[in-house]
């Protein structure tokens, strides 16, 4: 009888174990089936959403790729919103605005003007300071209120460290309104290099909307300049000035002699470029000059050189009569003095 009881208990134990295993397997099957059903429903939902958005009908695209597409679309919407905010900010002008805590936010300068000057031209510089550029507090006021940064641009004497260099250093210590290019020798044949290095230096130092080259014998109307440039904020690669083209002079005894005249073809005619008294380029073009300063060619005249740098680029040439400095009027930007 003891053996029989033991056998019955062993049989009951095996039945219980089998029942538990069966129940566990059943529950596991339900769980797996539920997860598979949930995943399939998710796939159906994502694919239907993709079809609704793209209108492409049936697709074999994976769920992972679908999620990437949806994420990219969301990022695109975010970027579009940021671009709209940036565009609106640019239309607000160039006067610094105050934040809610009363501090001023740093506003992007409208334009950096490089006034090309020479070692012996102090009288001209003083005339420019008195007429439109200002000095000291008035110079800073123009920068903060109008967003116009003006600096004289000069190289070094052929005999570096001589009395002429020391005179410029002394003048700059009083006025603090120079960009001194140590790698440029003050000479007519270095004019193109001087302009090129000014654009490079200014683009590296100031994140302005525009960069202008001007001579030290012209008067600049700041208000007209500001309103004119504001109209071109939507042109990222604009080259603005009093545009011209004309004969390339091939004889050494001619005033505007071009030693490399043969590069301009049999008709010896210049491509379209701005008069050298004053012209403006946008931030993107100034950055292009900065990045490529070592390989941009310099012709005999700086206005021709500047025009040549943009011939092969997708640049908008803006022929603006207000930059024709020889014809002064109340609406002109510049005038010879």
TrEMBL record:
| Localisation | Golgi apparatus membrane
Q: What are the DUF4094 domain coordinates in residue numbering? A: 17-92
> Which gene holds the coding sequence for this protein?
LOC108827661
Record's keyword terms, sorted: Glycosyltransferase, Golgi apparatus, Manganese, Membrane, Signal-anchor, Transferase, Transmembrane, Transmembrane helix
Name this protein carries in UniProt: Hexosyltransferase
* Keyword field contains Methyltransferase: no
From which domain of life does this come? Eukaryota
Q: Which family does it belong to?
A: Belongs to the glycosyltransferase 31 family.
Name the Pfam families for this protein. Answer: DUF4094, Galactosyl_T
Q: How does it sit in the membrane?
A: Single-pass type II membrane protein
């Amino acid at each position: 009888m003891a053996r029989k009881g033991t056998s019955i208990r062993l049989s009951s134990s095996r039945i219980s174990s089998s029942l538990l295993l069966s129940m566990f397997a059943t529950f596991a099957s339900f769980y797996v089936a539920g997860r598979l059903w949930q995943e399939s429903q998710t796939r159906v939902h994502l694919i239907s959403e993709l079809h609704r958005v793209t209108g492409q009908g049936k697709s074999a695209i994976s769920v992972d790729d679908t999620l990437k597409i949806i994420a990219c679309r969301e990022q695109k919407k975010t970027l579009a919103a940021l671009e709209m905010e940036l565009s609106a900010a640019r239309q607000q002008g160039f006067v610094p605005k105050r934040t809610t805590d009363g501090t001023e936010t740093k506003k992007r300068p409208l334009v950096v003007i490089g006034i090309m000057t020479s070692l012996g031209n102090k009288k001209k510089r003083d005339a420019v300071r008195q007429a439109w550029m200002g000095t000291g507090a008035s110079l800073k006021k123009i920068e903060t209120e109008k967003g116009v940064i003006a600096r004289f641009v000069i190289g070094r004497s052929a005999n570096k460290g001589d009395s002429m260099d020391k005179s410029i250093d002394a003048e700059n210590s009083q006025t603090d309104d120079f960009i001194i290019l140590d790698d440029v020798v003050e000479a007519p044949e270095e004019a193109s290099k001087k302009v090129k290095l000014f654009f490079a230096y200014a683009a590296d130092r100031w994140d302005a909307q525009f960069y202008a080259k001007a001579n030290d014998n012209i008067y600049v109307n700041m208000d007209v300049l500001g309103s004119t440039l504001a109209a071109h904020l939507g042109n990222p690669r604009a080259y603005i000035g009093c545009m011209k083209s004309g004969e390339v002079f091939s004889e050494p005894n001619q005033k505007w002699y071009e030693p490399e005249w043969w590069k301009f073809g049999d008709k010896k005619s210049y491509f379209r470029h701005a008069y050298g008294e004053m012209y403006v380029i946008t931030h993107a073009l100034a950055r292009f000059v900065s990045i490529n300063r070592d390989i941009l060619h310099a012709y005999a005249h700086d206005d021709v050189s500047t025009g040549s740098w943009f011939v092969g680029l997708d640049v908008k040439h803006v022929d603006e009569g207000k930059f024709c400095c020889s014809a002064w009027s109340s609406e002109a930007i510049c005038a010879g003095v």
